[in-house]
Amino acid sequence: MAKTIEGINEKIKKGKAVVLTAEEIIDYAAEKGVKRAAQEVDVVTTGTFGPMCSSGAYFNVGHSKPRIKLGGGKTYLNDIPVYTGFAAVDFFLGATAMPEDDPRNKIFPGKFTYGGAYVIEELVAGKDVRLTATAYGTDCYPKKALETYISLKEMNEAVLLNIRNAYQNYNVAVNLSEKVIYTYMGVLQPKMGNATYSSAGQLSPLLNDPLYKTIGIGTRIFLGGGVGYVVGNGTQHNPGVKRTEGGVPKTPSGTLCVTGDLKMMSPKWLRGTSYTGYGVTLTVGIGVPIPILNEEILRYTAVRDEEILAQVVDYSDSYPQCIPGNIGEVNYKQLKSGRITVQGKEIPTSGLSSYLKAREIAKTLKEWIEAGKFFLTQPVELLPSADSGIVFKALKERPIKKTA
Amino acid sequence: MQKKRIVLNYPSRLVDQPVISKLVKDYDLIVNIMRARITPKEEGRLVLELTGKRAGMEAGFKYLSEIGVKVQPLAQDVKWHEDRCTHCTACISVCPTKALDVERTNMEVSFKRDKCIACELCIPVCPYQAMEILF
Q: Which of A3, A13, A172, A371 has the largest count of CB atoms under 10 Å?
């Protein structure tokens, strides 16, 4: 009989739910068979811990006396500019935001050792940050300048809002040129001296629910060490790509937009991250529980690294010039072995997403559920899937007419 | 035979003296120079791997300290901040000596000091500033 979310939550409440991680389910399903495993297992937990640039947080810092209207003025946290285009004391801090003038970034290739993501990590760690602002002053908000320390617990709201996280699969990056290049996929050595990849593979949330049969708006998740929710599909959600027979996309595909109370999160799972010659980003820990409602869903969660394919892309030319295509296809078992072969050449591989930490997240979420501290949610709406007709558009530039 | 990885600090008055050749000729040591640098104030820093008999090694160190060259083990200069490491493995494909290595069964990264040659290739590659070399 097919299971329901309510039924699984009843079992969680009684401490009787059977929970396995996306790694543990592989051998379990192989041993017991899909049918029996689907009957016995209630939840499979997933995890990922990787750099996710489209992350950020919004804050309400409370009103000063006299009042100041940060909206429309300039506001900084530890010299990192925030977006103030809201009401008086609300603003948004983006993970990749950088100081306006950091000398460390000006010497080639640039260190990029500080930015928005580091401010988020420091705030979550309970540290004071410097809030500085200038405003134009109004009758109702007369104050024109502000300089103060502030910490997370003094704020009214502090909410993580990441508009694109947990990419379902990703490229493998190589460099075909003759010189070292500095990319968001790390430092790439010339003539395919190394290859980098960024996915937790068989542990990754969306690779365990490839056609979004259980994940949707309102799904409760592990986010940054606390509890968060799926807002909906992330930006660039592109479900209509080529897939394997098992439904697993062969290229970057689905994404998640997620949110959660920053005050409940931990600096262990929200880490400021710096890519030499590229910029700053936030490494985010996300774990999504997958309810095993039927055999089909169980089969998806039992996916193995060798069944997940990724495209090898040249980041010296194809990627920056937006030229489609790949120079090879490999699977995650090969990537994790430390060596892949591309165009006849053996290349050492490096991950950017931590498999060890992804496993820890899946285990932590499993423990939360087993302890009756975390319950599953019925999504309000599932994410748009392969049949949605979504087309991923490139920007078509149209010359702006100059008016006399 | 012994093998040691060390860092030599030269005062400016010794920068133009043939110190290493003494180690080779008088103390029968095999010298592998891994890094060398003279700073703007003309203090010299050398990262060496020395191989030789115990007696030669001890006499060589005595000679170095007598002429005023400070010797310290290389390990002191290289730090792996384990709390900052996320085990992402970004460093693994660039480390030439496997000082930074990963246990493939659980994907856990480890740092073996004695294998490190302080080449600094890991420094720009680590996104979490987990590696620090005070050279």
A: A172
